[in-house]
Amino acid sequence: MAKVHPQASVSDPCSMSSAGRETFTIWMKSLVCHTNGCTVFDSKGEIVYRVENYDSKGSSEVHLMDLRGKVLFTILKKKLQIFGCWNGYRGNFTGTKPCFQVKRCCSILQRDLACHVTVGFNKYWIVRLGRKKQGFKIVNLAEDIVTEVKQKQLSSGMVLGDDVLTLEVEPYIDHSLIVALVTVYGLINRRL
Description:
The chain is mostly beta strands. The chain has one helix spanning 175-188; strands at residues 22-27, 36-41, 47-53, 61-66, 71-77, 85-90, 100-104, 113-119, 122-128, 135-140, 145-151, 164-169.
């Protein structure tokens, strides 16, 4: 189990990005009994983010929090959308303009494209890695990989269960935003 240091000073994960590639581990389980969610660990094994979904799987409102429980993003599913649309708001939802929007793509027309992501004026795509939901990547319009999520594999070559994922984030990308987008993809696939 990961180390949790409640007395240690923790930098604000909302503004975290780095000059180098960062690797995180996502455990698709909640730390709270009888709830849905996930826990995100950094490369040192410390908890950095958590998602708690106190409602049913695929809930229409989910919160991404830091270790201390501060809400970093509120993710809301828009009602009456044919393919599905989720809006992400910084902090607690206050009815302001969303920070990002994720729209599910029609899989008949575009097989590998799962979602279209809009963050301000920037556009991204969530692209599936294979047919069996082994993972996905987020790419920009130039098709540069921004982040990649796949099933966690140990250095010995052993593959962990499908509820343990590796998240690799490219430099200078907001980690909390990426975890929020990964959360939306988990909601789309009914894993949260």
